[in-house]
Structure formats: structure tokens, C-alpha cells
Automatic annotation (TrEMBL):
It holds the Pfam family AAA_31. It comes from the Bacteria. Residues 9-191 form the AAA domain. This is Chromosome partitioning protein ParA. InterPro entries: AAA_dom, DNA_Partitioning_ATPase, P-loop_NTPase. Involved in chromosome partition. Localize to both poles of the predivisional cell following completion of DNA replication.
Length: 274
């Protein structure tokens, strides 16, 4: 029997390296999926809270956060806030999450707390809670207990890799963590794909990295490559996804293509005819 609900599909955005585009992808892929009709929840599992900020959630409005969910103070449903994007919601985080590892370390279900929270949400008959089709979990830049919780709660992992010289460094460690989680916690976990981010067409190194990563990781790499685009990096300071800030910019357009590719891949993974 499946340990994860069939719906929503839960994807963890994970890479223990910081600054590779996890949060930017959570915000903009979430927005792009919502734009093409999906009902999306972004769960902010990084104490930095940048996904929440980038989706326009003021720190003062984060009374209940993923910290409270992880410690069992409240349900996931209670934390969910609306965003300016139709069909996109967020469960925000706060700095309190920094301490959560110590607080839950002794609990036997410490690695399953997020999975249990998502299951409760999926089973809820409360009509005020949207019937999400996708949940995207923005992970912290570490392979800590928060990331383990995300992997244990997810159908698949989506790995952002920055187009830089050391792109593949650390990937084997991440993939071995995925194998460990699969063996011990969540047999359903699969690798959804690798998304290359911050591609700079004026830089030969970027093209070299794309070629290397495709050669090493083959079909796991999405066709869509996210370009480095100043509009994408400006948008969070306005509390907006790039797709709302400038829909026409190359970064927004790339995230729309990535969303279609992900939906396509989901259909293949689930054996549904495209
Ligand atoms: N496609 C892009 N173009 C330009 N800047 C980007 C792009 N993607 C991410 N960035 C910037 O790079 C930095 C790191 O991205 P972020 O998504 O926060 O990474 P992570 O969550 O993996 O730490 C941020 O300042 C972000 O605005
Ligand atoms: Mg981040």
C-alpha cells in the first residue's frame, strides 16, 4: 500500500548547496504551475523564509508557520496563506525553524512529521482548504532533519543545479541521501529531474557545464534550462514571483516551459497517456 497520498503530488526542491536556485524555482515553478491551472501549495521549510518573502508574505503575518507544524503546535492547514497568484498558496517559515531539529530529535516520528502533516491535509474534508494538485517543498541548504522530512514526504525530488564550475560537486552525496531515505523511510521517492539554473549564454563555461551535466546525468536533466536573468533576481524584493513582475522576461518564460515539462513527466511517471 502507498504510504503517500496519490494527490497532491509532492515534490521536494533540494540540494545541500546554497544559492543554486531552490527558492527561486519553488516560487516561479509554483507560479507557473498555478498559471497553467494547477492548485499549488509551496511549503517553506527553510528558516531563511525567502520563499515566503518572495511570495509577498510579510514576516509579521507569519503567526503560524512550518515551525509550528514540525513541532506539532498546529496543523499544516492552519498555516496556509493566500498569495497574489491565483491558485497558489504558501505555508510560511520563520527563523524558529533553526531550532526545530533539537526539539524533535528525541521523537520517534522525527523524520515523518512533515509527511504526517501533508497526509492529514490531503485527508481533510474541510472545504476552506484547497484541493491541491501539487505541493512544492523549498528545502534548506543542508542535508539536515528538515530536508530528510521533506524527502520522506515527497513522491520525488527536483534538484536545481547552478551552471557553474562545481555544479556536480556534492550531487553524489545528495543522491546517496536519496537512496538512504528510499531504503529507510520512503520507498516511493524518485528523482523527478535536475534543472540547470542561472545559465549565462555569454559565458562558454555555462554551455560546458550543461553539456557535462547532460552527459553524466542523461535523461534526468530537464530540457528546459533556466537562464540567468536580472528580472528573476529583482522580483523577490517586490514580494512578487518573476512571472508577476515581468511575465515576458526570459526567466519567466523558462519557468513556464519547465512547468509544462514537469506535468508531462508526471504523466509519464504515472503511466497516463499524454
Ligand atoms: N535565473 C536566475 N537569474 C538571476 N538570478 C537568479 C536566478 N535564479 C536565482 N537567482 C539568484 O541567485 C540567488 C540564489 O538563489 P536562490 O533561489 O535563493 O537559491 P537557494 O534557494 O538554492 O539558496 C538569489 O539571489 C536569486 O535571486
Ligand atoms: Mg533557498
Amino acid at each position: 500500500m502507498s504510504i503517500l497520498p496519490q494527490s497532491p503530488r509532492v515534490l521536494a526542491l533540494a540540494n545541500q548547496k546554497g544559492g543554486v536556485g531552490k527558492t527561486t524555482t519553488a516560487i516561479n515553478l509554483g507560479t507557473a504551475l498555478a498559471a497553467i491551472g494547477e492548485r499549488v501549495l509551496v511549503i517553506d521549510l527553510d528558516p531563511q523564509g525567502n520563499a515566503s518573502t518572495g511570495l509577498g508574505i510579510d514576516r509579521r503575518d507569519r503567526d503560524l508557520s512550518t515551525y509550528d507544524v514540525m513541532t506539532g503546535e498546529c496543523s499544516l492547514a492552519e498555516t496556509i496563506l493566500d498569495t497574489d497568484v491565483p491558485r497558489l498558496w504558501v505555508a510560511p517559515s520563520t527563523m524558529d525553524l533553526l531550532g526545530v531539529e533539537l526539539e524533535i530529535a528525541a521523537r520517534p516520528d522525527r523524520a515523518h512529521r512533515l509527511r504526517n502533516a501533508i497526509s492529514t491535509l490531503a485527508q481533510s474534508r474541510d472545504e476552506t482548504i484547497p484541493d491541491f494538485s501539487y505541493v512544492l517543498i523549498d528545502c534548506p541548504p543542508s542535508l539536515n532533519l528538515l530536508t530528510i522530512n521533506a524527502l520522506s514526504a515527497s513522491h520525488s525530488i527536483l534538484v536545481p543545479l547552478q551552471c557553474e564550475f562545481f555544479a556536480l560537486e556534492g550531487l553524489s552525496q545528495l543522491l546517496s541521501t536519496v537512496e538512504q531515505v528510499k531504503a529507510a523511510l520512503n520507498p516511493e521517492l524518485s528523482i523527478h529531474g535536475i534543472v540547470l539554473t542561472m545559465f549565462d549564454s555569454r559565458n562558454n563555461l555555462s554551455s560546458q557545464v550543461v553539456a557535462d551535466v547532460r552527459e553524466t546525468m542523461g535523461d534526468a536533466v530537464y530540457e528546459t534550462v533556466i537562464p540567468r536573468n536580472v528580472r528573476v533576481s529583482e522580483a523577490p524584493s517586490y514580494g512578487k514571483p518573476a512571472l508577476l513582475y515581468d511575465l515576458k522576461c526570459t526567466g519567466s518564460q523558462a519557468y513556464l516551459r519547465l512547468a509544462s515539462e514537469i506535468i508531462q513527466r508526471e504523466r509519464t511517471l504515472r503511466g497516463v497517456a499524454a
